[in-house]
Amino acid sequence: MLAPTLGSSINLNHMIGAIAGDIIGSIYEAFPIKTKSFPLFDHECSFTDDSVLTVAVAHTILEGGNYSDRFREYYRRYPYAGYGGFFHEWARSSDPKPYGSFGNGSAMRVGPIGFAFEDLETVLMEAKRSAEVTHSHPEGIKGAQATAAAVFLARQQTAKEDIRSYVEREFAYDLSRTLDEIRPGYRFDVTCQGTVPAALVAFLEATGFEDAVRNAISLGGDSDTLACITGSIAGAYYGVPPHIELEARARLDEDLRDVTDRFTLQFILPRMP
User: Fold this and answer.
1) Tally of structural domains, the chain
2) Per residue, what are the HEC states of 112-164?
């Protein structure tokens, strides 16, 4: 068959899922909500550091080099995207060293790794490599690996219960609580251990891509990052509906869109039947 053009009516399972989740959740980070009923794309929705660094990971995979240099390059290009304070200091340093973080930044940017590599061992190794330049704490590395592994397994159309079992077994995350049990007491949490399990449950309970993103945002936490992580996994499993893909791409600038499209052309379209 002829390869579809980007933005076609075919659901593509690619990294735009993470970007769409970030953009949709961007306006709820400061004003968290506890409902799934909200406009999907508000006029104030925009990409944040989650999208910027997700694209930076994709760019590193496409062209090689090290993650540290690429992250600092993207920071210079997008200095006001909403990074955490420690990342600001790291990116501005003349000799950046890992700062032992277990924040959710290592997990929100890792999605492309789950798409690009062909075996789980390599995915886990590369996820660690992408995390440890900043998030060298074991929980920071674990969050990145769990997310990348979930994307990889979702891309393979692994049964959801098997994804749940794998993540619980290999990373000791408790995925037994339902969203209805998590939501009432859930608060803003920027740690991997407070974000990744909740984002995974949002995916596991979803009926489709949009429902997964709504699930994540409805928890009322670090909404853009929750939805970015959930969106990366749900995008791999369900694909991203064309109208959501178009809305997300329209909110990227030309450079971010170009890398996203090149990554899709190299790693996603060739696998389509």
Assistant:
1) 1
2) HHHHHCCCHHHHHHHHHHHHHCCCCCHHHHHHHHHHHHHHHHHHCCCCHHHHH
pLDDT computed for residue 9 by the predictor: 46
Q: What is the pLDDT of residue 10?
A: 52
Whole domain around residue 177: which residue ranges? 16-35+46-82+97-271
Distance CA 172, CA 235 (A): 24
Residue 73 belongs to a domain: yes
Q: What global pTM score does this model have?
A: 0.95
Task: Flag whether 56 is in a domain.
Answer: yes
Per residue in 129-178, pLDDT (tens digit) is 999 999 999 999 999 999 999 999 999 999 999 999 999 999 999 999 99
Please check whether residue 171 lies inside any domain of the structure: yes
**pLDDT tens-digit readout, 71-101:** 999 999 999 999 999 999 999 999 999 999 9
Query: Is residue 11 one of the residues assigned to a domain?
Result: no
Distance CA 197, CA 186 (A): 12
**CA nearest neighbour of 6 among 273, 253, 255, 248:** 248
Residue 12: pLDDT over 70 = no
Give the up-direction half-sphere exposure of residue 206: CA atoms within 13 A in the CB hemisphere: 29
User: What CATH number corresponds to the domain at position 135?
Assistant: 1.10.4080.10
Distance from C-alpha of 13 to C-alpha of 75, rounded to nearest angstrom: 27
- Per DSSP, the residues of 18-72 read HHHHHHHHGGGSSS--S-S-S-SS-TT----HHHHHHHHHHHHHHH-S-HHHHHH
Tell me the average pLDDT of the chain.
94
Query: Tokens 């997700």, residue?
Result: 54
Bridge partners, residue 12, by sequence: 240
The amino acid present at 81, given as its one-letter code, is A
Per-residue pLDDT, 6:
52
